[in-house]
TrEMBL record:
Residue intervals of the NAD(P)-binding domain: 24-232
UniProt xrefs under Gene3D superfamilies: NAD(P)-binding Rossmann-like Domain
Record organism: Ostreobium quekettii
Matching PANTHER family: FLAVIN REDUCTASE-RELATED, UPF0659 PROTEIN YMR090W
Protein name in the entry: NAD(P)-binding domain-containing protein
The organism's place on the tree of life at top rank: Eukaryota
InterPro entries: NAD(P)-bd_dom, NAD(P)-bd_dom_sf
């Protein structure tokens, strides 16, 4: 563990200074979220099979960043990552249909079921929040177009992971985004990442406590911000939100606006 990397006692929810684990940090939403967490003053532990890529993305000398090389498909290795954590982010996933990622072990079952299940089961009951990103349509797998997207059971596995989390007794927040847009796509340049805001006029956010969105687009920028903001907002505990982007001003990084938005659904 990096020097000075310690858990911060919190009463109800995480605040800047807390220690959080991010699984899926090198993905699109994960890159955005990790950057925002570091900017906000969180102590971030990344767990990845590609530590060099993570170091290239987020730097090698940040005292608030710890990069661990572990296989999240191995339960014992996941357990070894959890010490001192106040929060956990599960952002792992894969493509809906077989691609070269599947040939590297990132199949639907492995990425959307095995890894999330390992993270949930290895997380101590003392955790302050477990945040998971899944997908719109997890409760509508028999409806078009989700029945097509679920051909290889990606949505079925994501829903199974949701149910395990909901039944685990851990305080959780789940986000089910519409089709993800905006970079980073394959960026490995952090400066480019920070400037890659292509939301245009779609800066607004629409949330629902039902799996009833899914016809629009959800900016990775917005989804990552929602994940970070929910940590310190009590109203988001034990909630599952559908999330999409809208043609409005939106809360951007304003904590009070996020609080008001989440409170309106509580």
């Amino acid at each position: 563990m990096a020097a000075g990397f310690k858990s911060v006692p919190l009463a109800a929810s995480q605040k800047p200074g807390a220690s959080v684990l991010v699984a899926g940090a090198t993905g699109g939403v994960g890159q955005r979220l990790t950057t925002r967490l570091l900017e906000a003053g969180y102590q971030v532990r990344i767990v990845t099979r590609n530590p060099e890529k993570a170091a290239d993305l987020f730097g090698r000398d940040n005292p608030n960043l710890e990069i661990l090389s572990h296989d999240l498909g191995n339960f014992e290795e996941v357990q070894a990552c959890m010490e001192g954590m106040d929060g956990v982010f599960c952002l792992v996933g894969t493509t809906a249909f077989p691609t070269d990622r599947w040939s590297r072990g990132q199949t639907a079952e492995q990425s959307c079921d095995v890894v999330p299940q390992n993270l949930i089961k290895a997380t101590p009951k003392t955790i302050q929040r477990f945040v998971m990103v899944t997908s719109a349509g997890v409760e509508r797998v028999k409806q078009i177009p989700y029945n097509i997207l679920n051909t290889f059971k990606v949505l079925t596995y994501k829903r199974k992971a949701e149910e395990t989390l909901m039944d685990s007794g851990l305080p959780f927040t789940i986000f089910r985004p519409d089709r993800l847009t905006d970079g980073p796509w394959t960026s490995t340049d952090l400066n480019t990442l920070l400037k890659a805001d292509t939301k245009g006029t779609k800066k607004g956010v629409k949330l629902s406590l039902q799996d009833d969105l899914g016809q629009g687009q959800a900016s990775r920028i917005t989804v990552a911000e929602a994940c970070m903001q929910c940590l310190a907002i009590k109203d988001t505990e034990n909630r599952a939100y559908a999330i999409t982007s809208t043609e409005d001003e939106g809360p951007e990084t304003d904590r009070k606006k996020w609080e008001q938005m989440f409170a309106s659904l509580a």
